[in-house]
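The protein record quoted for completeness.
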Amino acid sequence: MGLLERLRKEWFILGIVLVIAVARLEPAVGVKGGPLKPEITITYIAVSAIFFNSGLSLKTEELTSALMHVKLHLFVQIFTLVFFPTAIWLFLQLLSITPINEWLLKGLQTVGCMPPPVSSAVILTKAVGGNEAAAIFNSAFGSFLGIVITPLLLLLFYRSLATFLVLPLLLRLSA
């Protein structure tokens, strides 16, 4: 496989590396309120474009077929919403005996309890030639489950309650 062919095949990973390098050199471009306006472009435009593009490239039969893989969906959801947060918790128990800041460990646990980002799951699955329809379904379904499961997992791992106003939270989640 020639260099040009390899670059074409690995364009997405190379793009990620390039964007990280540019962000390292010029971080002000991507900050909130900066020229790229990530609070708008990422939240609304990029995620919508990824789903729109994925939806256009999928055949209805593929999506219907993907929905029938119940064992796959159960495995993915259990892995991402049960196994992974538990594995992170066990790993953080080991790290808690080190001098690492307690709040950093809590932040890692919080991120470990969240479902994976929808856009990256779909794009990476497509890049490696995986079942894109199943990835779209699991990403969307995992995000909906995460609205309920993530707070429950955090309650379980932190053993503490938080008070918050439900209506503003639901409005924010639905935006």
